[in-house]
Structure prediction request, 837 residues.
Amino acid sequence: MARGRLRIFLGAAPGVGKTYAMLAEGQRLRALGTEVVVGFVEPHGRRPTAAMAEGLETIPRRALRHRGARFTEMDPDAVLARRPQVALVDELAHSNVPGTRNAKRWQDVEELLDAGIDVVTTLNVQHLESLNDVVRQITGVRQRETLPDEVARRADQIELVDLPPEVLRRRMVHGDIYPADRIESALTHYFRVGNLTALREIALLWLADRVEEGLQRYRAEHGIVAPWETRERILVALNGGPEGETLIRRAARISARTPGTELLALHVVPEDGLTHVDPSVLDAQRTLLESLGGSFHQTTGEDVVEALLQFAEAENVTQIVLGASRHGRVASLLRAGVGERTIKGSSPIDVHIVTHEEAAASAALRLPRPGNGMGPRRLGAAAAGAVVLLPLLTLLLTVVRGPMGLAGALVLYLLVVVVVALVGGVVPALLAAVAAALLADYSFIAPVHSFDIERPDEIVALVVFVVTAVLVGTAAGAAARHTRQAARAIAEARTLSRLAAGVLRGQDLPALVEMIRENFGLSAVSLLERDPRASPVPRWYVVASAGDHPPERPYEAEVESPVDDLLTLAARGPGLSSQDRRLLDACAAELGLAHARGRIAGPAGVGDPLADAERTRASLLLAAGRDLRAPLRTAEDALGRLRRRGGERAPDERRLLETARAAVHRAAQLVTDLDDLSRLHAGALDLSLRPVDLNEAWGAALDDLGPGGHSIVLRLPEYLPDVIADAALLTRALTALAADALRHSPPGRPPVVTAETHDGRVAIRVADGSGGEGAAAAGRSGSRADSLALRLSRDLAEAMDGSLRTSGRGSAFTVTLSLPSSAPGRPRRGKRPTRST
Prediction:
């Protein structure tokens, strides 16, 4: 049975219209005669969305109970029994209620696809696993429900549903996304213009990468090698020389002229790891490149130009930036430089030759550097050198026969033998020595043009020459071999040290796998783990991968390096030598240690009774908060409707109504504080510490307080530095302090907020208007400091590496937070000495 097709409507944030677009597509297909059913749709109370679902056949949901509450989930068995042509399934990344067959909804969708049913679904970009940390850093919220990127990558079609941030915020204000009680909080936190703009850019870039993958797959399937200039990609060739920084800056300027240009840099390492490049120079160039928005790549290859052009074709590069040759004129005449050979082989790729200070620094004649191995190429080059150089030298000596005797000729022949030995080793040197002796006998020993020898001393000279040539050639070949072996050992140690440094720095496994792929010049690498419970047929999971189409099973790989019984490193690419295999085994062992360390660090603390008890208590508090929030919201809404209802009421009734409404609102706030405090203690409240502008934090806190009849006096310095904090949590703490100060300030004496900087920290003082006067204030200080809101503020401050202390006989609270390193003062965006709250 043919597998069904998966179509995803992708959005950057809730409310952009993904579900509406999915239902509209269902209505369109239904009008064309296609059997369409609704497997699961959640309109979230949005009337236009619910109206769009009218007329579509809906599969009844499956009812489940979990922790005393009733939930409904999609019933995949009912959908499979109905066998429609198309099923509409909302929220692909949703986690199913415990008790269902599959833990995730995308696994239910996989069953439908395997049964040949087409599925149309929705997904927010923040639910993609690879983007989870990026979204958390931007918004301060960590998504608990995530989707493996590979599931979305396998989709047959992905369509972006997009709205500008301003339009999305207007929809929020009009109540088209969230209920009224969540609008203000959403606008000041998750739905800020900056957050929405960043999420929109992430969604566009992720989708652009998927389009690029489809294009590369199409070009590979149709054998298209020539680059398609769908967008500019500029490649900088780095040889590790001092001119690299000049080339990078020049390429960055070229890239800046065209928006959307991608900047890459490539360093080619010889196949056996021999490189005479200073690692610190290359690391500095890599840092410069990444600071300019580029990406660094490294590959192996015996021929630099060939490896460079292969990489350019694979990455669809449109321009290559090279440095001008540092060889002199004579050396350039003997062998074409990298730039000239790249231009000849680049075809439609533009090549820029950039001059630099190191260009043509030396015009001296240099011998070609020996290759890096004794393979067929080296032996062929040595044989070719002997075949060319020995006849040429013989012809030259024949022309100057007069002043040059047999001894001088043998010395020059010896020089050729040494060169051949350096290039090809002992065997070519031995053959070259015998050939040189025969040529000397034929051309310079009487009778000339004959191999007969009349004088015994000439026989001795030829024998001594052959023996000397063999010994010198053997020594030269051995020295070259030892040099190559030492360089190989250095290269292996450098590779292992880089990998070990990455493990110690805590780099994730995909980055380490990508490092291995680049070092060995492989096309794709996967770290695979076998499920020990799967028997007799083994089941493998991809722990980390890099490259195009990485192997998902060991038998799909061309190179395999087992780590242990359950873990193996599988790779695709050119065959590796025995030395490379040995080095790959060592790298695989490093990956195994990194994977084991991650698994040990993951369940840290499991089995600690105190920690388990604390987590249980926190979960109970969270559950209690969720259960109380709904009835409190209902009571508050009911009191609000009674307050707005017309008709005359007695003053006592109005006063009691306002008192009850304020009490319910206060109880709801206490539940929220309790929820936040429990999540903080349970470790479920994520922190995103970064420099935060205090002016913006206070503005958000005053907005959260809402309208009222009081004032807060802000006496902040002209230049207020940033502080290290979580923006959302800092706003929450400042709001709680300001609300407490307002409650305890007498009429006409508003709270005062001041701030000062000392010893690398900022102290923010919030004092109410009472001044701590009288015994009542003194007796009240203990209860105020122990209140839930202030305890939450203190714990939030401590979670951000700060502190909260009481002063002024309990009438003032001071929050102290750290400054970023070398944080300059920031001018305030407008002076607001007072703010109506």
Observations:
- The two ends are 65 Å apart (CA to CA).
